[in-house]
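task queued by scheduler; priority normal; single chain, no ligands, no partner chains; default sampling; output format set to structure tokens
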Amino acid sequence: MKSMYANSLFGLMKISSFAATSIFLIILFSNHFVYAQNVSESIGEKFDTVKSKSHESFTVPFSSSNTDRKNPVIYTYDTPKDVSWILGITNNMTYNNSSEAKTIIKLMENLPSEKFIELAMFEQNDKFWVAVNTNESGYIRVHEQDIDGWSRDEPLMVGHANNQGLTVTNGKRIVIDRLSLDGFSLGSIAVYGKDDTESPINTLDGYLSFDLLYGDPRDSPLYFVPIIMLVIAGAVVFILLKFKKRDRDT
């Protein structure tokens, strides 16, 4: 009887685990596929763009890092993301063998605001910095690491929420934790690498991709995944108790 009970328990656990995983994946991918559409835009470069209800991603080629600070490649969102958002940045570019080879990424509010968040990724020693510019304080580097500062294997993550501030990871660990910017409305992203037009090229191949999730978390079906899993777990416990009671009765 104990063996049958153990087998039933194991079987139910497998079923509940599979069901929870299936529900999670269906919700996750349906949120992308139902609304997604491929759009090709041109603002100096071609963007490979995918949009959904609460997700927007785009990719730029390596040549974006060979533009200069006065003529960056700029991607502008249709509407600013001003509630909460998290941005994943994957750098899959091959750099020129130069101590100054780098990519600069600026997350900007729409004009007339001068507020922006700046990320710098260097080829040499994987140097990395994070800077912020606000109307009140001006330009400040809030994090800088000269060696092993960013990951080539994992995406960098930049997130902001009005009640939590700015959080940045370098692909390995959190380097900025809940820094207050008095709000930040993400309107556009600029990419460049040269300090001026005469500077040597920075990159030779590859791409840079951006993956943004935004909006009120309660508006996303993923918000309810923990609740769904809790219900499934409760159902499993209920069934097991019924089995156990039936075993005792027999």
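post-processing summary
- The longest helix spans residues 2-33.
- The longest strand covers residues 84-95.
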